[in-house]
Specification:
Blueprint lengths: L6 E3 L2 E3 L2 E3 L6 E6 L4 E7 L3 H15 L8 H17 L1 H12 L3 H21 L14 E9 L2 E5 L5 H14 L3 E5 L7 H12 L6 E3 L4 H10 L5 E5 L2 H11 L5 E5 L5 E4 L5 H13 L11 E5 H16 L19 H16 L3 E4 L16 E4 L6 H4 L6 E7 L2 H8 L4 E2 L1 E5 L3 H10 L4 E4 L14 E2 L2 E2 L12 E9 L12
Parallel strand pairs: 1-5, 7-8, 7-10, 8-9, 10-11, 12-13, 12-18, 13-16, 15-16, 18-19
Antiparallel strand pairs: 2-3, 4-5, 6-22, 11-21, 14-15, 17-20
Helix pairs in contact: 1-7, 2-4, 2-6, 3-4, 4-5, 7-8, 9-10
Length: about 500
Amino acid sequence: MSDDGLFVRDRLYIGGEWVLPHSGRVIQSIDPATETVWAHVAEADEADIDAAVKAARDALSGPWSRMDPTKRGAILYKLAQLITANARQLAEIESRDNGKPVRDTLGEMQRAADWLTFFAGAADKVNGAQIPFKTDMLAYTRREPVGVVGAILPWNSPILLCCWKLGPALAAGNTMVIKPAEQTPASILEIARLAEEAGVPPGVVNVCPGYGKIAGQALASHPGVNKISFTGHHGTAIRIMKSAADNLKRCTFECGGKSPYIVFADADIDRALSVAVHSAFRSTGQSCSLASRVFVERPVYEKFAAAIAERAARIRVGAPSDRRTHIGPHTSAEQLAKTQSYIQLGIESGARLMTGGGRPEGLDVGYYVQPTVFSDVDPSTRLAREEVFGPVLAVMPFDSEEEVVGLANSTDYGLVGGLFTSDLSRAHRVAARIECGLVSVNTFRPVHWMLPYGGYKLSGIGRENSMQVMDQFTETKTIVVDLSTGVPEDPFAN
């Protein structure tokens, strides 16, 4: 901390060194609970990104990619242990940066460590295969690092989603340049410090906080970067893809969602209600995989809509440091304004405001809004079709299975979906027809390091997590050895 109480991280982490940014500028990070500057963090520009990419390329040709994979795994495991040991400090930094309750960010630190532990174990299990295509030929594949990976992070769960990318990238022998979001620039520099302590060699991990239009653009377009892994808005992903096209970078995108949550009349309604409230409002609604559209079969619709509004009204909104708080403020003034604009759209469209819509009582400062429930939402309206990224829930009735499948698929997104029913045949039938990368039955959003995660349509390209993600961070090389003896016939002899 500085003399005036600010959290100061005025250096970037490049090539194993803590270096001043080229421009000398800092990002002022705003505490969303107080609307005041709480941290000054070094701001990277194009020159810094270029230096970081060069350091990553130098490290790629060094011992890291040729290291015994079990040793790489041991370093990742050490990093996981250090995250656990420093969880309280990391959680408090993350909470000051993005407004999540500390009890939530503490949970995310443990999950981040769990993700790294899983990929530490995966490091020596990325195998090639023998292909018996001819008896006198030995053909086999090798899995090799894709190269320098540019990781562009979101602001809602920086450390956790950093580890989603860092784990498989390092396990496969890649090197990285990581750009945290400008809204939450502080915590990933702490991960760099712990990576250094864990024994990650210089240049393997480089961290450059900066603005998307400057540092992010420089990373996406840099010819020395082989792959971009991005989590965020699909509009940004489109711009990244255009920049990445110049050298055909591999791209993995995990973008937004407008997740359908379907409740059939034969469901366990109490269970569906409990899961729905948590799935709609956790993280102040600032998650791409929330159940933001709830479709309820008409016989139980009115009862369900009233019950979910009553439960939403009980959610405690408050300071992130208060243990009694269920959800905190939005991460930024911009995101709060966006949520408020969708609440106004809901009112203007004629939807029925069941609860919320305003600022919580007693919270005059901070980017707060009440958990908000609309019922009788017109499925064709923007509230029903576009991602809000705030604690705003749209509840709609349906009359038939065919109708609700059409409604569930009626957006440009396809990340997560779910349904509640006691009919086993219907569960499998409807799950197969929902256009989402993850569909759950009688639960919602079981995100886990062992489960592939990613979206259809504008929700992204590629998958994260599970052993399947290693395909995204490796290149497959095919090698063929002729085992035959003698001289082959000259086809041009005659």
